[in-house]
Design brief:
Number of helices: 33
Shape: globular
Strand content: 15-25%
Distance between the termini: 39 Å
Radius of gyration: 25 Å
Strand order of the largest sheet: 6-5-18-17-16-7
Low-confidence stretches: 7-33, 812-833
Largest sheet: 6 strands, mixed
Number of strands: 33
Length: about 850
């Protein structure tokens, strides 16, 4: 099975298995890829597929006409022209449905007719596809066959239509009624010795209404084991911001981007992960803002943007630049910081600012703000004086002149916004790094005034809202007190387990039932083989899902797939068509009303699934109105209003449109910390323990991807076509290591004396700092150790993985073993506890 190396010619967009081309049943036969058998759970990792991967020309401007072409190709190809167009026109509209992907906010008023980006179009096409995964599909495809398939292939098969069960020792899913499915879950949960032997995961797609019922059910059942996807992404942001400014959310609005003098984009790739943010950056540039991009890789979306929205074509100059021009320049300065060098960089910037403050006393720092609203200033200044420039330069990978350029940009700006994403939050010192960014902003009073503040950019549409309404393994005592008063029960007070601790507990046999409300847990989690072993040791695993994914294939002794309505679909209940709400990255509550007919008459909404599950498990203990709540979501919002702060007149306000949740640091410069002020903190530079011959690897998305959902096989902004199994590497590092473009290498991660392996990645030369490499997740998640986590937040350190590379052996020599072992997949699973 020879692989073709990456060459210099991009695959044709209409070539094999590229982005918008649906994979037909039977396409990609099993002998075209290698099932991973190196771990204890064959098939837990994505199959090895390197045929036809090409390195071609990278697009140098984000969005534009190519973005429009790709959007329509996905939507029309999967949904049809008329149906797809109608869906797009309802996407992110106040009377429509909120985008299923990122949490970037929509304008409060005057929304565009086309208020979506390419990734939003892919998301609606993915959910609105006309293809179906029926019981007949599962009859034709045993699990051992599905394990051979790529994540792209699995997702392309279409929408799940019926509840399905995999019985013990069975290699197939079979249909089951909803009543039988709820009975299976109820029996397993009620047979446990303790409620803490179960865990209830939440995806960031889940609505406020479903999440509120879910956390209430779980606490009535008796546990706080409520891991969620935030544990793997912005938990570090929440920990840092709660400590420093007293609220675990951002402090800016879209309007602030129009008033900012400078915007720092740190560890974030908005062109792929939050494309609608580019419009805000373009508008900021038009008003004179300077933009600084801090990232190891030069991401296209940080440099140039072509806004293809047709409503902008009334401006002939804008129309011309969209069609034939190079686009709007965004970043004024790019600093190619080493992976995990951000803390050192901001420390260096602050040292430069401190030097200027001493030359011009009282003219650089906002001493009035510091005296009135902060504490810890003297300790911070002392720490800046002590840190050595050599340490800063070594850790950041930048020279002092580059750091001075960033400081000069900050000095010229009265109002600064700092944005960040996973490039900061998934390191051991992530919390310290974010606290250092807060230090930088506080020195010049850049929190709590127009055009300035912190902006953690959330990656999933309601991950912030889920936390607001109670999804957290460490609930505040005040929340538990309000639940106790409202529902007359005693909620559990002990902290539950987050995502990493849940995986460990499943692996030890301490958690025996795993229930996931959305998501693709296996592929999203770190340490793929360890997580797979953990799942297989459960008695029961349950996934509420819209599409088929790998988490459905590596299961407990018994497994259930419960298919739910998508956000874009009509949710008809006895009281009429229902809507739900979500909270975006800026604390705005938005309504979301589905408009498409459901993919199947068998689908239930997430609130209904949770309510019926609660009835099956809890019976009448206590007697609550689950049926009424699930029949009329206004009643759920009434409950939220009674329990969750700041939701007064919830139904009335949401009936009028969107509304903002209060934000004391933003609104009143009030900081609800233990000191009552914003806290400066002292954070030490921590150099990663990298030995000679080792590299620091970061995982990341491709452009044809949202979280673990693979829409296609191209990453046109990085010049990768028709595949995903690549590792990006500095060309000089390649020369020193004796590697050439397209050469397959095996990657080994090293942590506390243990090794983990990922096989056959093709080397792609790229502009990345020396000593750093990058690869796509979920393929590279197998390398992320379960024990390598951020201090305080316990977030997997997926951006700080120490690795070595070695040339791959001949895959042909082991293919016969793969074909033999695939038939023994189920027998190879660890026994359930």
């Amino acid at each position: 099975m020879a692989s073709r190396p990456l060459d210099e010619t991009p695959a044709s967009p209409s070539g094999p298995r590229t982005s918008g081309d649906p994979v037909q049943p039977g396409q990609e036969p099993a002998d075209q890829s290698l099932l991973h058998t190196e771990g204890t759970i064959p098939g837990a990792q994505t199959p090895v597929e390197v045929e036809g991967i090409r390195l071609g020309k990278a697009h140098t401007s984000a969005a534009g006409i190519e973005g429009v072409k790709q959007s329509l190709r996905y939507v029309w190809g999967r949904m049809g022209v008329l149906r797809g167009t109608r869906a797009l026109l309802k996407l992110n509209q106040v009377d429509g449905f909120d985008c299923q992907s990122c949490a970037w906010p929509s304008p409060d008023e005057h929304r565009h007719v086309a208020e979506f980006c390419e990734n939003g179009a892919k998301a609606i096409s993915d959910e609105g596809t006309r293809r179906r995964v029926t019981p007949q599909f599962f009859g034709a495809h045993p699990i051992s066959d599905l394990l051979r398939r790529s994540d792209f292939w699995l997702n392309e098969q279409g929408r799940l239509t019926h509840p399905m069960v995999k019985a013990e020792s069975n290699d197939r899913y079979e249909p089951i009624t909803w009543e039988e499915a709820f009975a299976v879950v109820a029996k397993e949960l009620n047979d446990l010795r303790s409620p803490d032997e179960a865990a209830f995961y939440t995806s960031g797609r889940t609505s406020n209404e479903a999440a509120y019922l879910y956390q209430l059910f779980v606490r009535l059942y008796g546990t706080n084991n409520l891991p969620d996807c935030s544990n793997m992404c912005h938990e570090s942001s929440g920990a840092a911001l709660m400590e420093t400014i007293g609220i675990g959310k951002g402090t800016v609005t879209l309007d602030d981007f129009l008033k900012a003098d400078a915007i720092f984009i740190v560890g974030q790739n908005p062109g792929t992960n939050h494309p609608r943010m580019l419009t805000s950056l373009e508008h900021a540039k038009e008003r004179g803002a300077k933009i600084l991009s801090i990232n190891p890789l030069p991401e296209t979306g940080n440099f140039r943007f072509k806004d293809p929205n047709p409503q902008n074509f009334n401006d002939p100059i804008r129309a011309v630049t969209t069609f034939i021009g190079t686009g709007t320049p965004l970043s004024d300065l790019w600093l190619p910081v080493k992976i995990n060098g951000d803390l050192a960089l901001f420390k260096g910037i602050m040292k430069e600012l401190l030097d200027e403050e001493r030359k011009q006393p009282g003219k650089i720092f906002d001493h009035e703000f510091i005296a009135r609203h902060t504490t810890g200033y003297d300790a911070l200044i002392s720490s800046l004086d002590k840190v050595d420039w050599r340490e800063i330069i070594k850790s950041s990978g930048l020279d002092r002149s580059q750091i001075r350029q960033a400081a000069d940009l900050a000095l010229a700006a009265e109002r600064i916004i700092c944005c960040w994403a996973m490039g900061l939050t998934q390191h051991k010192n992530a919390v310290s790094t974010i606290r250092e960014i807060v230090n930088f902003l506080l020195l010049r009073g850049n929190v709590g005034r127009p055009g300035a503040g912190v902006c953690p950019v959330r990656g999933h549409s309601n991950v912030q809202g889920d936390r607001t309404v109670g999804i957290w393994e460490k609930p505040a005592p005040s929340l538990l007190d309000r639940l106790a008063r409202r529902y007359q029960f005693q909620p559990p007070r002990d902290h539950g387990k987050d995502t990493v601790e849940t995986i460990k507990a499943m692996h030890r046999g301490q958690i025996k039932v795993f229930f996931a409300l959305g998501g693709n847990f296996l592929s999203a989690a770190p340490d793929t083989e360890f997580t797979a072993e953990a799942l297989t040791r459960c008695r029961l695993t349950v996934h509420v899902s819209t599409k088929l994914n790998r988490a459905h294939l590596v299961t407990g002794r018994t497994a259930l797939i419960l298919p739910c309505l998508g956000r874009s679909e009509v949710d008809h209940r006895p009281s009429g068509d229902q809507f739900v709400t979500v909270e975006d990255s800026m604390g705005i509550i938005n309504p979301s009303r589905g408009h498409l007919p459901p993919a199947s008459k068998q689908l239930l909404s997430e609130p209904v699934i949770v309510a019926r599950l609660a009835e099956a498990v809890l019976g009448n203990r206590p007697k609550l109105e689950w049926s009424r709540w699930s029949a009329d979501y206004n009643l759920i919002r009434d409950e939220i209003e009674q329990v969750i702060p700041d939701f007064e007149q919830f139904n009335h306000r949401i009936s009028k449109g969107v509304f903002y949740l209060p934000n004391p640091p933003r609104d009143r410069r009030e900081f609800p910390t233990s000191s009552g002020k914003a806290n400066f903190t002292v954070n030490q530079i921590e150099l990663l323990p990298v030995d000679p011959g080792q590299y620091v690897l970061m995982t990341m998305r491709s452009h044809d991807q949202f979280n673990t959902t693979i829409y296609g096989l191209d990453d046109r902004y990085r010049g990768i076509y028709n595949g995903r199994r690549v590792i990006f590497m500095n060309s000089e590092d390649m020369r020193v290591a004796g590697l050439v473009q397209g050469q397959p290498v095996d990657i080994t991660s090293h942590f506390e004396g243990n090794e983990r392996h990922a096989y056959r990645f093709l080397v792609a030369p790229y502009s990345i700092p020396r000593g750093c490499v990058a690869a796509y997740f979920p393929e590279a998640n197998v390398l992320v150790p379960i024990g390598s986590v951020a201090d305080k937040s316990n977030t997997p350190a997926s951006k700080s993985v120490i690795v070595t590379l070695s040339p791959s052996p001949d895959v042909e020599a082991v293919s016969w073993r793969v074909q033999t072992e695939v038939s023994e997949v189920l027998q190879a699973q660890a026994p359930a506890v």
